[in-house]
Amino acid sequence: ELESVGFIGLGNMGSRMANNLIKAGYKVVVHDINCDAIKMFTDKGVPAKRTPFEVAEASDVVITMLPSSAHVLDVYMGPNGLLHGGSLLRPQLFIDSSTIDPETSRKVSAAVSSFLLQEKKGSWEKPVMLDAPVSGGVFAAEAGSLTFMVGGSKDAYLTAKPLFLSMGKNTIYCGGAGTGSAAKICNNLVMAVSMLGVSEALALGQSLGIGADTLTKVFNSSSARCFCSDTYNPVPGVMEGVPASKDYTGGFASKLMAKDLNLAATSAKEVGLRCPLTSHALEIYTKLCQDGHEMKDFSCVFRHYYFGKDE
Ligand code: NAD
């Protein structure tokens, strides 16, 4: 019943996710404010719409994959936005896969459910929204192997599952509105802190006379073993194929990590929870960006923060 899919935000992630929906046989219409992004699709015969509102008029479900909270608010609530005018909507489901703060996810979800559906769909009278950010970068988006962490109504989650599985291989239902966004920023907070921990320890080890490759072997068969030591090692040459061994290119940009840590720090403040590691990690990543490494993979903290080498 979810045949017509509107996709908004055709950037690094969104363009690949939309392609996988098309491959899976969904009838997709697209929108972006960047003409070049749209052209990739119109060249293949995929229809483009001029505004989010026109996308909504043509879709059973709308998916957004935008840079940040402000863009999501604009696309939903702005002039000619998805929720522009009237009190009736065609799409029964809205899915936002952008990484944004849980507060904004809940706010937009509440706005969506203040509408009614143009046509009743089974037991659905109101449109619903899911926050469904993803883990896995551009390569996982291309390969259709993303993980979706999903907040909102459980029924809507089950209805949307086939869509998620056309773009990813794992889906996890997290709870009510905003919990998908919460899961995403918590995941990236762990990743940031563990990258700093592994980098700090490998830098200290080197200064104490043990090479990073040997110390990594110790970690990987001891209790320090983690994603940042055994899959995404930050020291050039220790592992093949990781950003560290490609001059910290590809991978997950420091500026995106700084953005996600900012979301975690802001959310922590809102609920009055002390999160000193988040604050400190945010400071370090903000400094890396200021020093000109914002486009480098976030594992570049090993070279550019601990060693301050700017070659
Ligand atoms: P991107 O900047 O490459 O793409 C965003 C797209 O949204 C662009 O094409 C832009 O033109 C479009 N856009 C911006 N404002 C718009 C508007 N008002 N209306 C229509 N289109 C608009 O970003 P990305 O790397 O694809 O990331 C998207 C989201 O996914 C971000 O929230 C990011 O944090 C998250 N994310 C990214 C990665 C990654 O590795 N890149 C991994 C996981 C999650």
Automatic annotation (TrEMBL):
Keyword Mitochondrion: yes
Residue stretches making up the 6-phosphogluconate dehydrogenase NADP-binding domain: 5-175
Domain of life, source organism: Eukaryota
Keywords annotated in UniProt: Branched-chain amino acid catabolism, Mitochondrion, NAD, Oxidoreductase, Transit peptide
Gene3D superfamilies on file: N-(1-d-carboxylethyl)-l-norvaline Dehydrogenase, domain 2 (1.10.1040.10), NAD(P)-binding Rossmann-like Domain (3.40.50.720)
Catalytic activity: 3-hydroxy-2-methylpropanoate + NAD(+) = 2-methyl-3-oxopropanoate + NADH + H(+)
Family, as annotated: Belongs to the HIBADH-related family. 3-hydroxyisobutyrate dehydrogenase subfamily.
Full protein name: 3-hydroxyisobutyrate dehydrogenase
Organism: Manihot esculenta (Cassava)
